[in-house]
Amino acid sequence: MIPVAVIGASGYTGAELIRILARHPRVDLRVVTSRQYAGRPVAEVFPSLRGVCGLSFTAYEPAAICREVAAVFTALPHKTAIEVVAAFHEAGKKVIDLSADYRFGDADLYEAWYQEHSRRDLLARAVYGLPELNRAAIAEADIVGNPGCYPTGAILALVPLLRRGVVDLDRPLVVDAKSGTSGAGRAAAVGTLFCEVNDSFKAYKVGSHRHQPEIAEQLFLAAGCRPSVLFAPHLVPMNRGILSTIYVPLAAGPDLGDPLAVYEEFYRDEPFVRLLPAGELPVTSAVRGSNYCDLGFVPSPENGLLVVVTAIDNLVKGAAGQAVQNLNIMFGLEEELGLQTVPLYP
Amino acid sequence: MIPVAVIGASGYTGAELIRILARHPRVDLRVVTSRQYAGRPVAEVFPSLRGVCGLSFTAYEPAAICREVAAVFTALPHKTAIEVVAAFHEAGKKVIDLSADYRFGDADLYEAWYQEHSRRDLLARAVYGLPELNRAAIAEADIVGNPGCYPTGAILALVPLLRRGVVDLDRPLVVDAKSGTSGAGRAAAVGTLFCEVNDSFKAYKVGSHRHQPEIAEQLFLAAGCRPSVLFAPHLVPMNRGILSTIYVPLAAGPDLGDPLAVYEEFYRDEPFVRLLPAGELPVTSAVRGSNYCDLGFVPSPENGLLVVVTAIDNLVKGAAGQAVQNLNIMFGLEEELGLQTVPLYP
Amino acid sequence: MIPVAVIGASGYTGAELIRILARHPRVDLRVVTSRQYAGRPVAEVFPSLRGVCGLSFTAYEPAAICREVAAVFTALPHKTAIEVVAAFHEAGKKVIDLSADYRFGDADLYEAWYQEHSRRDLLARAVYGLPELNRAAIAEADIVGNPGCYPTGAILALVPLLRRGVVDLDRPLVVDAKSGTSGAGRAAAVGTLFCEVNDSFKAYKVGSHRHQPEIAEQLFLAAGCRPSVLFAPHLVPMNRGILSTIYVPLAAGPDLGDPLAVYEEFYRDEPFVRLLPAGELPVTSAVRGSNYCDLGFVPSPENGLLVVVTAIDNLVKGAAGQAVQNLNIMFGLEEELGLQTVPLYP
Amino acid sequence: MIPVAVIGASGYTGAELIRILARHPRVDLRVVTSRQYAGRPVAEVFPSLRGVCGLSFTAYEPAAICREVAAVFTALPHKTAIEVVAAFHEAGKKVIDLSADYRFGDADLYEAWYQEHSRRDLLARAVYGLPELNRAAIAEADIVGNPGCYPTGAILALVPLLRRGVVDLDRPLVVDAKSGTSGAGRAAAVGTLFCEVNDSFKAYKVGSHRHQPEIAEQLFLAAGCRPSVLFAPHLVPMNRGILSTIYVPLAAGPDLGDPLAVYEEFYRDEPFVRLLPAGELPVTSAVRGSNYCDLGFVPSPENGLLVVVTAIDNLVKGAAGQAVQNLNIMFGLEEELGLQTVPLYP
Predict the structure, then answer these.
(1) Is A345 close to D46, i.e. CB distance below 8 A?
(2) CATH classification of B2-125 is 3.40.50.720, yes or no?
(3) I want to staple D281 with a disulfide (CB 3.0 to 4.6 A). Which of A259, A297, C201, D296 is the partner?
């Protein structure tokens, strides 16, 4: 059993990590921290976990935690995570960071969109934790920057096409993404009150969301080219799920052939990417609660476009599930362990 | 008072027409027909209308109806409407048809996407009922083809830009639209059951929805150019509302200038188009139950794109409200009559 | 035109008052105050009101407000309202208070459930603003305590039965009520975040909600008897609406007869109470956005019970609409003015 | 591995059985039948099950099925199940029937509320499959009538109190229950369309729902007394979950003592009943997707009532999960096998 801790476990991502880890056959969840709830039983804060997790939240005491665990999940706000990750890393622990602080290869890019990064040395060591692209590097990593929820759905759709060289790099890639509200977190805020979100729909931060540079950089790192990306997020009145509708301009030259064949070749052995037959498009309820990424597409040859649609659960493949997938890889476990939950429909 | 009938009043569009007409100060709703509910009081089928509408549904008897009314709204399925509209037209009634049967200028285009059109002569007489574009023609029309819900939101966003000549016609216009579920109608179907739609999100009919040619034709008729349009509809777990996120490729040549100024000039005197200040984007709850179209935008100069976002209530500005707006114009009434309902938030 | 102000207009009740008053033909809304949003246009805070209300929120400056208006709606938190109401009252303004501060006849009861009441003199002057019971007193009142949302639905169901003397006062009345989430207000709070409420259902404050003594006292004042009331509220994942399922123990002695006849006699001339035919039960969507209270029932003679079910929109008949109804009565206007909005279905 | 079949697997209960059985470590799901979808892959009809269940639906061919399996789940409409269950029983298979056809001990009662029962002999053999009450009998049974969803939540709340003899049998038990919409099934119907249910709430079949006699009979069988039960179901705009608020009249005589102690004694060793601490009430999201029944209560001594609240997932503990729990018991497996899914929150 691998003893682990979750630092900052009182948000939706933290609760989801506990949900998954509590049933992981090779992991022993020992410590969950929360400044706000320190001292209170997990089951009291999250009644869904009554009888599932017997822990109480504790304060953040790194030395004590280090004596208990071999690996740490950090589910903290951006910026806060930088030094916490560093502390555990320096204590020799494997760290999987779910903030944005260790996702960027280019520290300047991080600083342009977030704030100063006080540990550029560690940022340079961290591996971007998208197993379908970086499995080998993750296996060797001691710090994994767990991908953003939106980037996961976009990158999985785009990299196979970019590597094929069939994308017209002179035209922008448009990623029109729609997310459930858990992506906004569990902090009290007027904008995510039930009555503000229910029975309504909106776009926000079009072209200015911080996941846009993350997507762009990973496309470059994974495919070696620098497409222009316009990212347009939207808020959906649902709890979980991201559907990304991606408009891919195809190059005039090399023919793409059958997109399904391209994806099948790329994702042949992947346990968590499900390719839909031609003519079918994903729906978020089909991945709810699971680590799957469903992928479908519609060719639009008259427009020189391929429309690719992916669906993930933002809290699972977009956050906690992918983090556990990374843990499994880092510790040489079977990659699906703890992640075989069947999607909850309806 | 103008005596009117609604033919096929048992769907959501029919119920919405009754809701609006019941409070219209210059309209007297005399007849509502429904094959399914003939003989039953409206208030029994639609309890919201108890005490509001004292009528009972009747069977479709055109001769009797013609003796009662001066104008007719037809809210029938496509194809069924063709001959019904013709019958009332030939009896000298003004007709506003909410199906697709009288929306197309090009009968061949209609037939390519729907079915044979048995009254091409009348189709040629019909006016596309988008008042912001065709007010003068609507005033003279005796048959109005009321626009589709999706096309309303898309066309209002695009025509001002196309007329300015700032759109790059060599690249496709992408209309990524998200609709509430009332757009799918009130017929029993598994796909629109509560549990299939709630807490979920999906794309459907990308590139193959019948509103795509309607949008394309109206852009041509209104702006004189033939942009390529890719239309991608999505289903939102909400009752009402369409949010359209439209990716407009800008031409390299003539500078667009301030998009807000362009829209302000175009919509200066329009009572139902609300332009949002720079930096704000629409939300469907802000138009719920009203005839407004809210419009905002985000420039993306690095991608050569302008992202325009519109929000309408699909049952009001996207159907019944616009139909009543057309009626007002056809009968020389003040255009806002019966349509001043304030949006219902939250 | 009656010039009015809304004090504390930035919550859901405040927004709803603006929505209704903006279209009231005899009211001129002059002032809307908000500590939080002072200086900002209403249309910026509530985009639904763009083009509807041109005012900006102002700070609370009673002297200046008194120069502008003849009547005041106070939509403030409990306790805060006490002195604000007093100030306007002493300046000779009619006041309709939407807090609980002027709802109780028994000041001790108020203090037992809320806090000390610093203006018992004014509390004694205030009239409970349920027009169906207190119309004459409201017409003479200068301070109206606008009823709570839950009490409105419960009291309208119960008073006709209590006045008939058919209720068994030795057994408790059980009011099992289910409310949409707007009843919890617009303050940021974890418990009313979208993800906490959506796709979920819960009971809360069973037997300890402050509306329980309000219901009990009004039943006593209206019917002269003191039934025992158990009030059990629940939170529904919807924006608006309260459905109250009320279990009424019937006395063995005098026969109730046909409950519908009892209600018809009581509510014969009421514009906002809609009685459903035997066998039909209300649904909240049928009253959404309107000032109606729908009422139906099911006899359960084998249990000695009559089950009465009412549906209201908690923001309209349960708050802002009823407040405007009271204003109309206080100023001798036709009672339905400004309140004829048809329910928004679906 | 126990080879099993699901007969009538195309509804929500069927899909849920597949979801659970697909991950059951000791069950091999061999056959799923559906008249409507015969020949189509399960993953095509239920995209959530892609990669999870490789079967295709087949037609109902009992002889062939009997050669494959040792146990059968029947998830058919009432009446249809009677002979299907009989056929498998006579072929020596263990049968767990999820319809109402084998739930009643009193065949006359069944016939009074449903229709004629053609196999009274088998009905007499069937065991009511509520493990917390009937575990020993279930272990010996060859036909189990799986409880209704509403009865499960009501009976688990009531039996411990009835057995204690603390309930006043002269006053009615009121069960005010609120169910998610999946309880209404997956058949196309106007009443369960998204727009009819979303953002709305209603009561239905108060006092006339078929689960009322089921509850009443089981209370009698389990506790030996015949309380009067009034059952009032409501429809909640959510997918899954039943919250039952139960008003229990307490007898004047023997003191109940601490209700928590009563429940703790009764449910001490039950893996799926979670008792909440005093002062906490259940919420359906805390049991979503799990086999738990959460139970809390509020005493109301001034009314002589104890209010008990239970929450279950209607598709799991209220249907498929309980059926699998019964299977485990019938085959001598550990009772929690396949049922350890953690509730999905949010």
Answers:
(1) yes
(2) yes
(3) D296
Give yes or no for residue A256 having a pLDDT over 90.
no
Helix (H) or strand (E) holding B90: helix B80-90
Distance CA(A160)–CA(A262), nearest Å, equals 7
pLDDT category, D179, cuts 50, 70, 90?
very high
Q: Please report which helix (H) or strand (E) contains residue C157, including its range.
A: helix C149-164
**One fold for A2-125 and A150-313:** no
Contact D346/A at CB under 8 A: yes
- Give B255's pLDDT tier (boundaries 50, 70, 90): confident
| pLDDT for A253 | 76
**Chain A interface mutation, best of C13, C16, C182, C194, highest count of A Cβ atoms under 10 Å:** C194
Distance CA C340, CA C322 (A): 12
**pLDDT bucket at A128, cuts 50 / 70 / 90:** very high
Q: The pTM is what?
A: 0.98
The residue among D226, D253, D293, C199 whose CA lies nearest residue A285 is C199
Question: What is residue C256's predicted lDDT score, i.e. its pLDDT?
Answer: 86
Residues, chain B, total? 346
CA dihedral B73, B78, B80, B83 (to 10 degrees): 70
Alpha helices in chain D (DSSP H): 12-21, 42-45, 62-68, 80-90, 107-113, 120-125, 131-140, 149-164, 194-197, 211-223, 259-267, 321-330
Min mean pLDDT across A281-285, B335-339, C276-280 is at C276-280
Q: Report the length, in residues, of chain D.
A: 346
Residue B254 in this model has a pLDDT that exceeds 90:
no
Which DSSP symbol is given to A271? Answer: S
In chain B, where the domains are located: 2-125, 150-313
pLDDT (0 to 100) of residue B240: 98
Q: What integer is the mean pLDDT of B242-248?
A: 98
By three-state DSSP, how is residue C107 classified?
Answer: helix
B340 and chain C in contact, CB less than 8 A:
yes
The answer to whether D188 contacts chain B (CB < 8 Å) is yes
The secondary element (H helix, E strand) that includes residue D294 is strand D293-300
Helices A149-164, A131-140: axis angle to 10 degrees equals 100
pLDDT tens per residue across span B106-129: 999 999 999 999 999 999 999 999
pLDDT band at residue A299, thresholds of 50, 70 and 90?
Answer: very high
Q: How far is B142 from chain D (nearest CA, A)?
A: 34
Whose structure tokens read 């346990």?
Answer: A271
Tell me which chain D residues have a C-beta less than 8 angstroms from the C-beta of C346.
Answer: 195-196, 198, 200
Q: Rounded to the nearest 10 degrees, how much is the dihedral formed by the CA atoms of B154, B159, B160, B165?
A: 130
Q: Which residue has the tokens 């926000």?
A: A204
How much is the mean pLDDT over chain C? 97
Active site residues of D: 149
| C72 min Cα distance to partner chain A (Å) | 26
**Is a pLDDT exceeding 90 seen at residue C253?**
no
What is the C-alpha separation between D66 and A174, in angstroms, rounded? 54
CB contact under 8 A, D197 and B194: yes
Q: How far is C159 from chain B (nearest CA, A)?
A: 23
Q: Which residues of C touch A192 (CB under 8 A)?
A: 193-195
Chain D partners (3+ C-beta pairs within 8 A): A, B, C
Q: Hey, is the C-beta of C299 within 8 angstroms of any chain A C-beta?
A: no
Asked if pLDDT for residue B252 goes beyond 90, the answer is no
CA distance D180 to chain C (A): 8
Chain B contact for C52 (CB, 8 A cutoff): yes
- Across the range B235-243, mean pLDDT stands at 98
Nearest residue of chain C to residue A46 (CA atoms): C196
Hey, is the C-beta of D207 within 8 angstroms of any chain C C-beta?
yes
CA C304 to CA D196: how far, in whole Å? 33
